[in-house]
Amino acid sequence: MKRIFFCLISLLSLSTSIQAQNSAKGVPPVIAEKDLTAYLFVYFIGNKVEEEAVNYAVSSDGYHYYALNNNKPILDSKAISSTGGVRDPHILRGDDGKTFYMVLTDMTSSKGWDSNRAMVLLKSTDLVNWKSSIVNIQTTFPGNENLKRVWAPQTIYDAKAGKYMIYFSMQHAGGPDKIYYAYANKDFTALESEPKLLFVPKSGNACIDGDIIEKDGEYHLFYKTETNTPGIKVAVTKDLTSGKWIENDNYLQQTKDGVEGSSVFKLNNSDEYILMYDVYTKGRYQFTKTKDLESFSVIDNDISMDFNPRHGTILPITRSELKRITDKWGTPAKLPKVNHNPVLEGYYADPEILYSNKTKKYYIYPTSDGFDGWSGYYFKTFSSDNLVDWKDEGIILDLKKDVPWGNRNAWAPCIVEKKIKGKYKYFYYFTAAQKVGVAVSDNPTGPFKDSGKAIVATRPEGIHDGQEIDPDVFTDPKTGKSYLYWGNMYMGVAELNPDMVSLKPGTQKVIAVNPSFREGTYVIYRNGKYYFFWSEDDTRSPKYKVRYGISNSPTGPLEIPENNIVIQGKPEEGIYATGHNSVLQIPNKDEWYITYHRFSYPTGIKMGDAGGFHREVCIDKLEFNADGTIKQVVPTHAGIEALKK
């Protein structure tokens, strides 16, 4: 957290639909685009009844796909449909970032192409367990007695209406296929009202397989026109239900073979899109790439799949979502190894890491980042039993609700576990309104109760600059005494009283460092020596880094090695601003890890000053030389391997 905390810096445009979902200024997105690191391909495989089902495949790069579950269905078609088969799966991430919606054609081709009147609606919060409903248009809405078929439903969130729109093609006897729409009810189990016309070409020709994607405030509807020369076209509008579409007369497919089932998705952390479609006459897919959604180039030579899909869609997913589905259906042997940094999804910074003897788990206590000008107001914690897979345990302290003396700027916490009268207690020190407070709990995940006042509220005597921020708590294994460190532009220290919520009078002092000290003190003990870590420069600087000194005492003085960089950025890997660390020792082992934050990858370095409050948390190994000095850590995207249980 930084010296000029009050500066208001405009959030740079991240040009993603997920970012755009946030209506409140300065509030982090529900899913940050930088956390979308993989892809889920949802498809069916053929015209046999057993092939008309939902299948999954995954990719780490958007180009190479591997089937899950040995290319067998992940859902039982007979259990979710009225016909015994489903086709044309479309999947959508909801506006909340964590709910998923899937819609399917309820039909089997064995009964004929004009045999279906229904669609299947599914909803999930984990991509594994789905709740399903059947919507039969003919029996639900009067006036559809001559309805022949309902094909290829898809879903999009209509921000103007605040609802999920389901759109699909229908054909009534004697007329062409047209694309209709209706809004889903709140539970996504039915349609709110009878379908209305969404789109039909000016020519009046039939159209099917609509696929809508939003870009720069415009909705692009890709569809298949069923003329004497069928193919894929696009129409554009700024208002989904206005009926005002600008049609592009050009065919978009890059083949003369018959095609259907087009689908567009945006490549993760890129300004490029992929338009793919089912070349059904040849039993293959074609992939094309574009930036403007108007001109497309074939990239088939870049694509590989170990399965043959039919009409499906691709959804960008996070690492944790990928893990969830591969835990369920197995990890393909050829799927590239997934990076473990950052360890937390979302924007977080200033990580404090703890091993709890009570729960035998590890915990990270970060600053909630992504708020304009470091204006976050709540703290969360995350738990893990292997340092790789982290569970969000939710908010443990909300300044606006829980801390009346400091309701803003929730920064840089730290925590200590103490056994008092045979019971574990957790003392959580935090920054609020540029003061240091303390809250107490019986559990590492809270709830935490604020002590009622700041424990550090003013600068030490003789200090005329800086802020009272960035607490660190350390218990000396030699004496059992606990110390609180804090400060920006100076390193303050004082002994804590046995109650752990007040400072022992007369023990406060300022430890001399050198001009490299900015903030973020952290202290550990190893082989009779006390190691002091701190951050140099400003968190908005790509050169933000960690240095260290060594002492024979928890209160100094410090001996500063000549080469004392602990970790710094690696620009050639796109890693910048590695700082504000904590350190973990694996219990009863001389095994150490450093937890730190960096600019979010790959977007942070492009944000200017805003990169300094769009940060992410990483873990790498910390090692020592034979003489006790610290080996400089090389920051990685790979991170560490999961600890064995």
Automatic annotation (TrEMBL):
UniProt feature coiled coil, ranges: none
CDD domains: GH43_Bt3655-like, GH43_BT3675-like
Signal sequence, renumbered to the chain: 1-20
InterPro entries reported in the protein's UniProt record: Glyco_hydro_43, Glyco_hydro_beta-prop_sf, Glycosyl_Hydrlase_43_Enz
Matches recorded under Pfam families: Glyco_hydro_43 (PF04616)
Keywords noted in UniProt: Carbohydrate metabolism, Glycosidase, Hydrolase, Polysaccharide degradation, Signal, Xylan degradation
Family membership noted in the UniProt record: Belongs to the glycosyl hydrolase 43 family.
Native species: Flavobacterium ginsengisoli
Name of the protein in its database record: Glycoside hydrolase
Record-linked Gene3D superfamilies: Glycosyl hydrolase domain, family 43
Organism domain of life: Bacteria
